Amino acid sequence: MRPIGSEMKQRIVIVFKKEVSQEEIHRFDENILRKKVTQPNGVLLAFADGICNFSYPQISPEVTIVDVPFCANATEEQKQEIRDEVMSSQIIDTALEDVSPGEVRKLK
To answer: What average pLDDT does range 83-93 have in this prediction?
Structure first.
């Protein structure tokens, strides 16, 4: 079985700026955390290379975060590409590596 969620050790927990809209977060989700895969009957959104899943845990009403665990078989190049994309985004307040979403609550 493949580990899921909090069982995965290597991850990025992304904290969005408070003023960011849900539409901006949706675009970030589609363009950075996912990739478009052309199919015979259209386009499929799949996880970006190196990402096996992600979630938006609710840690507080005023902060939106996304928990992005890397796949166990993710290459360092795949991880670095995701890191670079995250850090270049103008809507990110903070990005933390290898912490659980619960630890973000303690930092805020």
So the answer is: 95
CATH number of the domain within which 12 lies = 3.30.70.260
pLDDT score for 101: 75
Domain count, the chain: 1
| Amino acid sitting at position 105 | R
Q: Could you list the residue range(s) of the whole structural domain that residue 35 is in?
A: 8-107
- How much is the pLDDT for 108? 55
